[in-house]
Amino acid sequence: MININGTILQKHQSTIAVSNRGLNYGDAVFETLRCSAGKIYFWEDHYFRLMSSMRILRMEIPMNFTQEYLENQILTTIEANGSIVKPYRVKILVWRQQGGLYSPTTNKIDFSIACSELENPFYTVNQDHYEVALFKDHYITSGLLSSLKTNNKIIHVLGSIYAKENGYDNCLLLNEKKQIIEALNGNLFLVKGETIKTPPVKDGCLKGIMRKQLLGILSEMYDYDIKEVSISPFELQKADELFITNVVSGIQPITKYRKKEYSNTLAMEVLGKLNAKARLG
């Protein structure tokens, strides 16, 4: 079942027009959420990121697009797909209504909500082998637009194809300054001794919700010095630990880059704190 503009439809009924601006011009923004037992993890942060992204893209925000309205729409969609107590991945997609490339006829929006069931209600750390490589065929442009969760993800798609063709589990992306900014599906954290680094948003990385949560958790762990600073590719092989974060999978440790192998000590240390914050926050 799919939610289109507040109406629950069968998947085969949930069609969009060929002239859809998200399909034609990438004129769309989305949020990916994790929900379990009727609770949307970090919902307030997701809601305000969505509203901020829509404002930056000059979309008109409907008067009824309140935090309570969208939460109700999400839970209604989940309930229509099965048991609301089960864990789900939820995607909200918002696009501008029809018009030409340079002259949209309106800034009004349409939206959809779709969900799929997850196996585990809480975050776990996958400790299997997880090898990454640099994707150097194309670069992400640093700046505000790159930090938004829009559907302009062609570089990420090409990077995922490169990873699959070459036997890697993921790729790390670079900006035009040859700085590491993120993985294909999440933000990057680098641990070296007692220092933890993650690329700043200005370098072009996604302004991730899980990134924000981890920065908050790590800032309370006084053994570490947390820095939002640019990361050079040369730092990767000197690191003790690398991990990727996103709101669906939580924390994914990287075990290998080139000939360097990494531990997952910090990832395991923060896992319990993350689950506690997700349940209570």
List the keywords.
6-stranded antiparallel β-sheet; D-amino Acid Aminotransferase, Chain A, domain 1; 5-stranded mixed β-sheet; alpha+beta; 16 strands; about 280 residues; 6 helices; D-amino Acid Aminotransferase, Chain A, domain 2
Describe the structure concisely.
With 281 residues, the chain is α+β, with helices and mostly antiparallel strands. It has helices at residues 21-25, 43-56, 67-81, 154-165, 209-219, 265-280, and strands at 2-4, 7-9, 28-36, 39-40, 88-96, 109-117, 131-140, 170-175, 180-183, 187-192, 195-198, 225-228, 241-246, 250-254, 256-257, 260-261.
The name of the CATH architecture of the largest domain is: Alpha-Beta Barrel
Report the major sheet.
Answer: 6 strands, antiparallel
> Which spans have pLDDT < 50 for at least 5 consecutive residues?
none
Which strand order does the major sheet show? 2-1-6-5-3-4
Helix segment tally? 6
Number of strands: 16
Looking at this structure, what is the CATH superfamily of the largest domain?
D-amino Acid Aminotransferase, subunit A, domain 2
Beta-sheet strand percentage? 25-35%
Structural class: alpha+beta
Question: Which geometry do the CA atoms define?
Answer: globular
Please give the domain count: 2
Helix and strand run:
EEHEEHHEEEHEEEEHEEEEEH
CATH top level assignment of the largest domain: Alpha Beta
What Rg is obtained from the alpha carbons, in whole angstroms? 19 Å
Q: What is the average of the pLDDT values?
A: 94
Helix content: 25-40%
* Amino- and carboxy-terminal Cα gap: 28 Å
Look up the CATH topology of the largest domain: D-amino Acid Aminotransferase, Chain A, domain 2
